[in-house]
């Protein structure tokens, strides 16, 4: 017989299946048997996920996984589409090391990105150092316009990586 303790694993000898053949929802939390990523056919099927299988933040695909929904963190659910936020995975792009337009001349404080970043996704670097976003920090960003609180020194290299839709 194999010694599974040496590998830190669990020995399983035999077929593994759910104990309840009526349970159709995938599980990633074996302790409680809830949550998971599951594809269902219709919105009605989405709303049929039972309370004991729901956890805020769980993601369910509808129509063969062409549309995804994330369960909201609500005090109670009403089992309608209002319980869910649509999640869009397919229409995001990653922009890496873009050089924003605007001169680093010691005077200019405004720089423009070619696209509007998803809020909070931008990482702005000045001469390779990550900058902090905020009114009392290094810069602020509104849409695709970066405004520095103090003008960067002349000839400094400004780069921004971000996600966009």
What brief labels describe this structure?
single chain, 165 residues, mainly beta, 2 domains, four-stranded mixed β-sheet, four-stranded antiparallel β-sheet, 1 helix, elongated
Work out the strand percent: 25-35%
In terms of structural class, how would the helical and strand content be classed?
A: mainly beta
Distance between the termini: 55 Å
Please, how many helices? 1
Q: Let me know the number of strands.
A: 11
Whole-number count of domains: 2
Whole-number radius of gyration? Answer: 24 Å
Helix and strand element order: EHEEEEEEEEEE
Helix content: under 10%
- Biggest β-sheet description: 4 strands, mixed
Low-confidence stretches: 29-33
> What oligomeric state best describes the polypeptide chains here?
single chain
Physical arrangement of strands within the biggest beta sheet: 1-2-3-4
Shape: elongated
Taking all residues together, what is the mean pLDDT? 81
Helices and strands in order:
Blueprint (H helix, E strand, L loop, with lengths): L36 E4 L2 H5 L11 E4 L4 E5 L12 E4 L5 E6 L11 E3 L10 E4 L2 E2 L8 E4 L2 E4 L9 E7 L1
Parallel strand pairs: 1-2
Antiparallel strand pairs: 2-3, 3-4, 5-11, 6-10, 7-8, 7-11, 9-10
